[in-house]
Amino acid sequence: MLSDVLLVSAPGKVILHGEHAVVHGKVALAVALNLRTFLQLQPHSSGKVSLNLPNIGIKRAWDVARLQLLDMSFLEQGDPTVPILEKLEKLKEVADFPEDCTDHERLAVLAFLYLYLCICRKQRWTAEDLELINKWAFQGEKVIHGNPSGVDNAVSTWGGALRYQQGKISSLKRPPALKILLINTKVPRSTKALVLNVRNRLLKFPKIVAPLLTSINAISLECERVLEEMATAVPAPEHYLALECYRRHGLKSPASGRPNGNRLSLLLQELIDMNQHHLNALGVGHTSLDQLCQVTMAHGLHSKLTGAGGGGCGITLLRPDLTGPEVEAVKQALTGCGFDCWETSIGAPGVSVHTAASLDAPVWQALDGLCAGQWASSS
Amino acid sequence: MLSDVLLVSAPGKVILHGEHAVVHGKVALAVALNLRTFLQLQPHSSGKVSLNLPNIGIKRAWDVARLQLLDMSFLEQGDPTVPILEKLEKLKEVADFPEDCTDHERLAVLAFLYLYLCICRKQRWTAEDLELINKWAFQGEKVIHGNPSGVDNAVSTWGGALRYQQGKISSLKRPPALKILLINTKVPRSTKALVLNVRNRLLKFPKIVAPLLTSINAISLECERVLEEMATAVPAPEHYLALECYRRHGLKSPASGRPNGNRLSLLLQELIDMNQHHLNALGVGHTSLDQLCQVTMAHGLHSKLTGAGGGGCGITLLRPDLTGPEVEAVKQALTGCGFDCWETSIGAPGVSVHTAASLDAPVWQALDGLCAGQWASSS
């Protein structure tokens, strides 16, 4: 048991390039998104373990003494890295779900109980051990997702940007933090059906689609190269608008040979545009995503879908030269379309321990109401 | 000199697939468009050769006796297949242009005078000889275009559909006649600048753009295959809507294994969509073309740019199952955007001789006013 309050956070994730192509052995770039999930761990004398997940409306408590009476030996059976479906079936009895509990809530509670019981049982809790955290986070992913790639937990653990290809995950050295908008079109879609559609298109038109996947792979690799070059580039936002002006008139920029942040930002925009067209050619676009791209392009900003497509989410690169009112204007235009819109950054730090003083007021206020729980989470 | 009225027509042309990629050695498909230019040749006793091009407002006449007095020996100098810039400079004196004559008018008159004088001089006029017609048409192209590929005159001469790759032109066997809309966005663009932009993008991102061109090449080849299969397929328009319904819901159509016209029309639509996205990824799209695609897609129809892009023209495939009112609705929507729109067909016959009885009333009416001219043309 812990003697003090422990406050940690971990970032969300978006795919920068390589969605769908990754299914066919190509490179994907995943980046940590600075929309963070906060977790507050706090010891309590009530004899209960409490879970409070205010964002999805879950507040549950279990009697620790009762949990200790139950036979939990099934948790130790088998390899922890193989699917744990049978263990989860038995855990459902422990969880004791009320009848009106949604699937969404059940999965969140199961993931918590599985991690809590395994970690307590094994007495191996070490907050600083990223490898261990990543391993447990992967177990949580298995509970909720079923067949996760391991990218999501890895990005949330290590932060920054990761390259993923055929099961191999590696971190980019010093990826830059880039401002973006994350936009939810709120159009529901089935990732499974979209992945299947791409596979069918590849089978139907192999000579058309295979080179397209090769082109997407090259976009991911070029983006990786640009991100690594950005780490050493000197940003010069005041030159940016001039460069954009040259570009719009189809002229060769006088600065186009200079390895600075502006040239690199323009490259990132070109890669975003090309990949968005490629994803459309794969058949995973959607009119809502077209609208998203058009609305941001009307403000001179470049966007692509992120993830499965067919609706879902998109990202918009916010160039360093943009003013606050300019960003507000595009956000208003997007919310005017009925989209949800968050201004955030990618290349964010991974799982982090916080002191209360280091937190922004809104985060602290959100956490403040949760002190009654032994475990609490707020995103 | 001819003793009777001769009435001939030749089709226009659109690129079905392969624009831009063709510059980089890939296959392009050019198809004859049934928007025809009519030419009426008529002997006259006025001692004048008259040219009447009502569509571009040209009505000129030259005294044949005066032309015979001029030294035209320069026309015989050199190879007729090499550029004829010097000859054209001398021809401008013969043409005797008024000061307010536009470049557009000058080029049309020069092309006419060059062909008229060369053909009269060589006494080789044979209307049935397609090879000869194609050769002279190519000379006209050289006058107007400067560095033509030879595709335009070949399509207008032979009609149907042609495959072009690295200077080699071959006709498709029995291409089907397909109904389309030809849409002019009326957004002006420079073909030269757009071709240069694609070349620069290929140099900048070789590993991204080269596979994209390979994919476009595969689209042209697949389209060629589909067009040839269509010639032997039995069309069954009444099944089309059901197939479209299956497709929209992402279901495998029960008829998708049947080699019929509907399955082939769906394939053509998919190829059109993929190529339009590819052309966008090459950077030759335009917001006007996006609008064109969206407007036709709202009516369930698939479109792509044709030619250089960056504005200019687009084509929309009209499926065989469409009713007259449905076609009218999409045409109205397009003209509502400020576009010009023609309902026509591709795979049209090449250069043809007509009898008056075989012509539609509007064509005949347009030609009827031109009997005063010895040569007359109307599109």
Report what the structure shows.
The structure is a homodimer of 379-residue chains. Chain A is α+β, with helices and mostly antiparallel strands and 379 residues long. Chain A is 43% helix and 20% strand. Chain A is built from 12 helices and 12 strands. In chain A, the strands form 2 sheets. In chain A, strands 1, 2, 3, 4, 5, 6, 11 and 12 form an 8-stranded mixed sheet that branches. In chain A, strand 8 (303-306) and strand 9 (313-317) form a beta hairpin. In chain A, helix 6 crosses helix 7. The interface between A and B is medium-sized, with 26 and 26 residues.
Brief sketch in words of this structure:
The structure is a homodimer of 379-residue chains. Chain A is of the alpha+beta class and 379 residues long. Chain A is 43% helix and 20% strand.
Shape of chain A: globular
How large is the share of residues in beta strands of chain A?
A: 15-25%
- End-to-end Cα distance of chain A, whole Å, is 24 Å
Low-confidence stretches of chain A: 236-259, 371-379
Overall radius of gyration of chain A: 23 Å
Give the SSE order of chain A as H and E letters.
EEEEHHHHHEEEHHHHHEEHEEHE
Given the helix and strand composition of chain A, which structural class is it? alpha+beta
Q: Regarding quaternary structure, how should these chains be classified? A: homodimer
Helix content of chain A: 40-55%
Average pLDDT metric of chain A: 80
Q: Which protein chains are joined by the largest interface, and how many residues does each one contribute?
A: A-B, 26 and 26 residues
- Please count the helical segments of chain A: 12
Q: Tally the beta strands of chain A.
A: 12
